[in-house]
Design goal:
Layout lengths: L2 H31 L7 H38 L6 H16 L2 H7 L10 H21 L1 H10 L6
């Protein structure tokens, strides 16, 4: 692999790790902490988000990094066949949903996290994190991926 390709693969992993951590923290604070009236004001919101960020960092960051690297490698192969932004975003959304469905299995393999992640509510939470992460990555990196598809040679034969 070339250095530029290796860097782009690692940057995809870092982007997905950061985005997964931030989105999962935001969802936990908005849908679990705020409805429970556990925060008072904006300062309490930031304090809760900051403390939850560290709990989400290890599982979401690690899984996001692995999924980001695998997705980028997949997109390097597939980008020659993706012609539009809509196609890229939809394919990344599907990838995000499929990887999200594997998150609870990932937690079980590490023997980490509550068993409630394997029920429907936990699965929906995982999909609500993974799908936006993949779509955000497609939007952020669309120029590079679509440029790669337009510069690839046409098949002969």
């Amino acid at each position: 692999m070339r250095v530029k390709t290796t860097v782009s693969v690692l940057m995809a992993g870092i982007f997905c790790a950061c985005a997964a951590t931030l989105i999962s923290t935001l969802w936990v604070v908005l849908f679990l902490v705020v409805p429970a009236h556990a925060v008072q004001g904006f300062k309490g919101f930031l304090s809760a988000a900051f403390s939850i960020l560290f709990f989400a960092l290890v599982p979401a960051g690690l899984f996001g990094f692995v999924c980001g690297v695998i997705s980028r490698l997949y997109l390097l192969v597939r980008s020659a066949h993706i012609a539009t932004t809509v196609g890229l975003v939809s394919e990344c959304g599907i990838i995000g949903v499929l990887f999200s469905l594997c998150f609870s299995l990932f937690l079980r393999l590490l023997a980490w996290g509550p068993e409630e992640w394997t029920n429907l509510k936990g699965t929906l939470f995982c999909v609500s994190v993974g799908c936006p992460v993949s779509i955000l990555y497609a939007i952020v990196d669309r120029r590079d991926l679509l440029r790669r598809s337009s510069s690839s040679p046409a098949p002969t034969g």
